[in-house]
Amino acid sequence: MSLSIIDWWALAFVVFIGLPHGAFDAAISLSLLPSSKKTLRYIMVLIAYLLIAIGVVFIWHKFPSFSLTLFLIISLVHFGMADYSANPTRFKWVHIIAHGGIVTLWLPVIHKESVAEIFLILTSNATPFLWNALSVLTLLWLVVCVIHMSQIWRLKHQQTIALELVGLIIIAWFIPPLATFALYFCFIHSRRHFVFIWQELQSVTTAYMLIISATLLSLASWVMGAGLFWYLYQQMAANEAALQTIFIGLAALTVPHMILIDFIFRPHSKKLIKNRHILNG
Fold it and tell me: What proportions of the chain, in percent to the nearest 5, are helix, strand and coil?
């Protein structure tokens, strides 16, 4: 598979604009820890984060097709939860599936030929079961989208959510898959994450510390990614090495990132907000 100039730019955007949104995880972890023995517990959290990421890479190496399938499911939930949290609607999981499925279901199916080549590079073998599953799930996803649209279009303050969904579906149809993924990942998902974390953590740390923390972790990720790319480049073409480095690397980081954000930090943040309302009420 050869990558176009647009594809290379899309991958660069993912690495240098999208990837740093997860670099706030260190500051988030620190904010959740009690003051006693904070340094030791922080080190343990970072070690656990790293071990989970390494475990994902190991599992991907042993079971690539299974790992890719699981990565798409995890990404659907993670992307959808971020979109729902930014603009919540009445039916949570309808919203999550509709928005999270744009780049995880709709995009692969409508650009099957191009995405199949990417999947082949990521798994080193054909994935007929995955494609059959994607076809069925995409039909179900379209039904969910119709339900979602019917729920929110009549409400004026939620029409922008419907416009975003329809706009991304149309954009994905006309723009190459890597460019569509980069557009969504960098300028919708990552932007929303930046805004959410910035608002939530300003009360417990300074902007300077947030920026320093994110910068240091981003640099560390880029250095490790460059090392992995160089290692893979000795064994395969540059485009294949780049795709494996970026997407398997994203999978490795997404699992601990999702555990921290979606299952620990968001519930913790909602609980704090609820408690403030009770105290103020």
Answer: 90, 0, 10
How far apart (Å, rounded) are the C-alpha atoms in residues 56 and 44? 18
187: Cβ contacts below 8 Å, ≥ 6 apart: 17
pLDDT at residue 279, as a whole number? 45
Q: Return the amino acid letter for 45.
A: V
What does the pLDDT look like over 162-171, one tens digit per residue?
A: 999 999 999 9
pLDDT in tens, 192-205: 999 888 888 877 67
CA distance 127 to 232: 22
What would the mean pLDDT of 222-226 be, rounded to a whole number?
93
Name residues whose C-beta falls within 8 Å of residue 104's C-beta, 6 or more positions apart in sequence. Answer: 72, 73, 75, 76, 79
Query: pTM of the full predicted structure?
Result: 0.91
Task: Please give the Cα distance from 29 to 47 (Å, whole number).
Answer: 12
Nearest alpha carbon to residue 102 among 174, 13, 172: 172
Other CB atoms closer than 10 Å to residue 30's CB: what's the count?
19
End-to-end Cα spacing for the chain: 60
What SS3 state is found at 241? helix
Decide if pLDDT at 65 tops 50: yes
Q: Which residues contact 122 (CB under 8 A, 6 or more apart)?
A: 64, 68, 243, 244, 247, 248
